[in-house]
Amino acid sequence: MVDLRSDNVAGAAPKILEAVVKAAVGTARSYGADEWTRRLQGHFREVFECDCFVQPTLTGTATNALALSLLAPSWGAVLCSGTAHIHDSECGAGEMFTGGAKILPLGHHDGRLQPEALQDYLQGVAQAGTSVAPPKVLSLTQGTERGTVYSLDAIAELADIARGHGVRLHMDGARFANAVAALGCAPADATWRRGIDVLSFGATKNGALAAEAVVVFDTELAEALRYRARKTGQVLSKMRFVSAQLEAYLAGGLWLDLARHANAMAARLAAAIGRIDGVALLHPVEINELFLRLDPSIQDGLQAAGIGFYDRGGGEIRMVPAFSTTSTEIDRVAEVMGTAAASSGAAAAFSA
Q1: Using 50, 70 and 90 to split pLDDT, how confident is the model at 344?
Q2: CATH assignment of 2-6+255-351, given 3.40.50.1220, 2.60.120.10, 3.90.1150.10, 3.40.50.720?
Q3: In whole angstroms, what is the distance from residue 311 CA to residue 315 CA?
Q4: 14-252 in CATH: which number?
Q5: What is the DSSP string of 5-74?
Q6: Is the pTM value of this prediction over 0.90?
Q7: Is residue 137 a contact partner of residue 169, using CB atoms and an 8 Å limit?
């Protein structure tokens, strides 16, 4: 089976597995006082070229919710794209961790929050008084839930608008590695140098077993992060196993190598799809996600061939190559789609 349902379905990168096995030898101090977690601070500071503070975590949902709790008061609001994971896929975790802050989705194009939508909303609520939850945080997903990325200029523009209204910035980086690899920039350029205060740093989708992190670029938030992480159950007794994953992930730029491969597999499939009748890309393919509209016969062909994809309904699907997806697998998917299209007259049906 070629499984492109999500990058979450993939296994773990061998180097990360090796790091976990090595960490399992002998004993170590508990609750984050181990040598792996201590070393991790230096690794993140080197990667981001600043005096940041990092808290290892287990899940993306907890990471986002914990990050938002550092910036949003219970009576405030968090602004985001209408496609944001914190809005429609995390069961109100952000509201719970913040004690009730309201998450408000705004207009987007290809998953990217639009500056005009942000400016219009902030100007509209400026005189609302206590009748409306005041915006306190802007959350940007990088790369977005539609497989696109914010350019560095776009991040800076949105950050400038937010700062002008006293709003701080969070970045949901579940696929941050894929975005940085696509932009070809330094991680610092895509975060704190463009105004980001707190980053949810993802690794699980890109080769880790279960490892994420909250990274605060405003070190005054470090104390609150340490206490909130403990209170929300994100301080593991054997934290070394999470930190060892993140250490191996960053070592030698492995995180970007894995992301570049996943991105390349998505680009390879997108190029092949462009030559197949009955298939349309719904959004630009800028990281490792593809959103497609298919002729029904092609979708049936994929299912018959045992190729996994996420069915979004209405003839739309999502495919997500992972760090471990091979070019042979991608070519197989393209072959199945092409064969199904050719054998069913998909072009005529699709265009109709």
Answers
A1: confident
A2: 3.90.1150.10
A3: 8
A4: 3.40.640.10
A5: S-GGGS---HHHHHHHHHHTSS---STT-SHHHHHHHHHHHHHHTS--EEEEES-HHHHHHHHHHHH--T
A6: yes
A7: yes
